Amino acid sequence: MSTHASYKGPADCPAVIPVFPLSGALLLPRGQMPLNIFEPRYLAMIDDAMRTDRVIGMIQPDPEGAGAANPKLYRVGCAGRITQYAETGDGRYLISLTGISRFRVESELASASLYRRCHVSYDAFAVDFAPRAGEEHVDRAGVLKALRDFVESNDLKVDWAGIDEAPDEALVNALCMMSPFGVREKQAMLEAPDLKTRAEILIAVTQMELVRGAGPESTMQ
């Protein structure tokens, strides 16, 4: 299945996309997100996406609207293209999204479909289409120190060889995506204006978690 190479800038991306509201799920440009789809409305969403441009938007519900049937959404999410797709014997879809670009929700469309669709703009996130942009400003040593401290504090296992080989963008974005932090922390990482700021947020949130001495149990692999 082809990648999202055809998306060179904001003008190339679909202006209306289906959105998948999921708390704690962070997709970033060029990141890989596996998803296990089983709810009927999202099975329908994937069916429709596969018939068109294979693009869906990952977005977090605002915690203030928790429990509502159609919770309020944050204004910023990330579009991804379905780059792996498999069906299971019990009716589920196993897919992988590759992040394309962040977007800002301009409006939500009234729709008869089971899932939600939004009119979105990518114009504020042109930097997302430039691979490895801003890597030279990232405090890689600070990121690795925060990771080592967190790993030691929580007795986790990591693939240090893979981490050492990863470029700065891939390292920072992967650690943000798999981090066990909360909805607001994940949203701050998503909305960071550049890679340097995203890395700084990751370091700061990790340090605060260590100070509290109650890091969530998780495994970063």
UniProtKB/TrEMBL annotation:
Top-level taxon: Bacteria
Gene3D superfamilies tied to this protein: LON domain-like (2.30.130.40)
Pfam families to which the protein is assigned, alphabetical: LON_substr_bdg
Residues of the Lon N-terminal domain: 17-210
InterPro entries according to UniProt: Lon_prtase_N, Lon_prtase_N_sf, PUA-like_sf
PANTHER family documented for this protein: ATP-DEPENDENT PROTEASE LA (LON) DOMAIN PROTEIN
Protein name: Lon N-terminal domain-containing protein
